[in-house]
Amino acid sequence: MKARVHVRLKTGVHDPQGKAIRNALVGLGFSDLGEVRQGKLIELELGEDDPEAARDTVDAMCRRLLANTVIETYDIELEQ
Amino acid sequence: MKARVHVRLKTGVHDPQGKAIRNALVGLGFSDLGEVRQGKLIELELGEDDPEAARDTVDAMCRRLLANTVIETYDIELEQ
Question: According to the model, what pLDDT value does residue B80 have?
Answer without folding.
Answer: 79
